[in-house]
Amino acid sequence: RSTIQSASEFATRNQLPPRLQDQILAHICLKHKTEGLKQQDTLNDLPKAIRSSILNYLFLPIIQKVYLFQGVSFDFLFQL
């Protein structure tokens, strides 16, 4: 987000035409999406057990706070 804001400020400060501004922002968005894909590729290359451990570490605390899953066993949540 700060990158997008910096790019917008740069474009405004240098009075770039809207077409160039759009190209800059499109490039930043594409770069961000590509980085996300690289992260997914990295995860996919890992063994399933390690991948599960990482995903549970990252998302289990969030899932446990969801009303729908309150009172559900840890084993069930781990299987999600």
UniProtKB/TrEMBL annotation:
Keyword rRNA processing applies: no
- Which Gene Ontology terms cover its molecular function? voltage-gated potassium channel activity
Q: What is this protein called?
A: Uncharacterized protein
Q: Which GO terms describe its cellular component?
A: monoatomic ion channel complex
Read off the Gene3D superfamilies from this record.
Answer: Helix hairpin bin
User: Which species is the source of this protein?
Assistant: Nymphaea colorata
Give the keywords, sorted: Ion channel, Ion transport, Potassium, Potassium channel, Potassium transport, Transport, Voltage-gated channel
Q: Origin, by domain of life? A: Eukaryota
